[in-house]
Prior knowledge:
By secondary structure, the chain is an all-beta fold. The chain has 7 domains: 3-115, Sandwich (Immunoglobulin-like), CATH 2.60.40.10; 119-201, Immunoglobulin-like, CATH 2.60.40.10; 205-281, Immunoglobulin-like, CATH 2.60.40; 287-358, Sandwich (Immunoglobulin-like); 369-446, Immunoglobulin-like (Sandwich), CATH 2.60.40; 453-528, Immunoglobulins (Immunoglobulin-like, Sandwich), CATH 2.60.40.10; 540-702, Jelly Rolls. It has 3 helices and 64 strands. The relative contact order is 0.05.
Amino acid sequence: xxxxxxxxxxxxxxxxxxxxxxxxxxxxxxxxxxxxxxxxxxxxxxxxxxxxxxxxxxxxxxxxxxxxxxxxxxxxxxxxxxxxxxxxxxxxxxxxxxxxxxxxxxxxxxxxxxxxxxxxxxxxxxxxxxxxxxxxxxxxxxxxxxxxxxxxxxxxxxxxxxxxxxxxxxxxxxxxxxxxxxxxxxxxxxxxxxxxxxxxxxxxxxxxxxxxxxxxxxxxxxxxxxxxxxxxxxxxxxxxxxxxxxxxxxxxxxxxxxxxxxxxxxxxxxxxxxxxxxxxxxxxxxxxxxxxxxxxxxxxxxxxxxxxxxxxxxxxxxxxxxxxxxxxxxxxxxxxxxxxxxxxxxxxxxxxxxxxxxxxxxxxxxxxxxxxxxxxxxxxxxxxxxxxxxxxxxxxxxxxxxxxxxxxxxxxxxxxxxxxxxxxxxxxxxxxxxxxxxxxxxxxxxxxxxxxxxxxxxxxxxxxxxxxxxxxxxxxxxxxxxxxxxxxxxxxxxxxxxxxxxxxxxxxxxxxxxxxxxxxxxxxxxxxxxxxxxxxxxxxxxxxxxxxxxxxxxxxxxxxxxxxxxxxxxxxxxxxxxxxxxxxxxxxxxxxxxxxxxxxxxxxxxxxxxxxxxxxxxxxxxxxxxxxxxxxxxxxxxxxxxxxxxxxxxxxxxxxxxxxxxxxxxxxxxxxxxxxxxxxxxxxxxxxxxxxxxxxxxxxxxx
Length: 703
């Protein structure tokens, strides 16, 4: 074949508006005049139904062109020695082409690729309910393997109602949400086509609620549209309800959960797209008409009458004390046990829906009466009997001199108690379990075993200090014995009006009384004295603030210090020094950080919180609010030793012990210290005062 002609042919084909793919099988030079030769073909990629052009030599000898995959074409649009044109059949796929002639088969080196432009032209309707059929129009939709609705809800081609090259019919799935549609050809690297328009998926609508207000536990009727699409109904304050009394497109009947709260009612279809009701649901509140008896005695029962009382799940008496609702109640009457520690106040009734209502009248509580004391005169340590009525309520007795003693026994008409050290002549007062105080109208007389009287002495001292005891007839006293039964061995002056004595180093720390023994062997006791000192840290694994690594994460005031003049043992401590008012955080961390609650777990009654403190200036108000918060509740203890005396200062380190049973959430104790998973620490609160204090070694310790 003439080479000049061949070059011209290449130049001509290079001007064609399709991709040229060189692919030929050459013969030996001595056959070129008669051999069939494939030089090029195109376009590639090509469209099915479009034209394919094949360029070569002696192509007039070609009897058929085989397109992939085994698509045999014998009818050509044009057929010359240099050019064959043909229409590409629909079944053609990508692959090599083959020219068939009497000389044999010639296969292309290059691959014919097929262009398959998938398009999504439209869909209808543009608003549909789940279960409705939508029609999708486009091109090459026969290649689609999945229709994808908003929120990635996919319908595979095996679930299509119909499918062709131009159209797909498919049902809107129950879980479909409003949004654009997407088509995928399902390949490993898929072609995904997304619609420009949005398919609006119908949601159920609640237009009217009745009755409203509604009583928890009764049936609520919901009227609206497309309610047959509802799978669950959501009420405020509780988990969604899936069990319905009845259901249709226009109406639903559903039982209102006992713990449902006021608020919108939520329609939840299979798509979980929540649609709230147009109006808010209001829950019925119980009505209280009477409390009987009133007054009532602590520990006895009170009968409550009214309406819708069967909704009540909790009754709270004065002092935030929870009462026990007894069985056998009705919607119009319930019986509640009054807690032993309840105080006089309105009674609060709470429903599972967190609705509250108060009694119209204060519930008054029976108080004991004192008619006599037997004997009317006694010495320290003697047992006396207080006579009267309702004395079974009495827990302790306060004697003149502000000393208190726990009763030994208490019954309806009598209570026995030992005369405490420090008691003085005067009336006595009985204290009930709820804190009520009833004072006698007559005096109790203390029989002294000596004429000695103490008129002044320190309220606080530390081992090693010399203290001055001032009084009268002190020269009658022979021995001075400190708490812990430790006799004094070092004295200063000793006169009838003054005794100077050094506190022995091994005196028991804490609040106690100094015992004096007269020359004739009789005993006499001082008022209370607080011997300052700190307890050792028994178990380091129960230590959770030491400010030497076990530090604070946050707080509003104070910080870590290490002043040798103030440090307890040369280590760090936490110091607060400022005028405080209201909530002011000291030091806090969270329960997941070195909190030893799991060691104690449920053994709450056997352990206490301990901390070492040095109060450098008098504290006159507020409280130290200790907090232990977790999954079981938010438990607090208010430490305020200055409340009774008006001020408090240690001027030296002491250890404070708070039993864990005194940490309360309302009236509830901590059930499991392992569940303190949130905040723990201390803050100043509920008052104002100058606070200048050092704190160290916050820990738990076995009682």
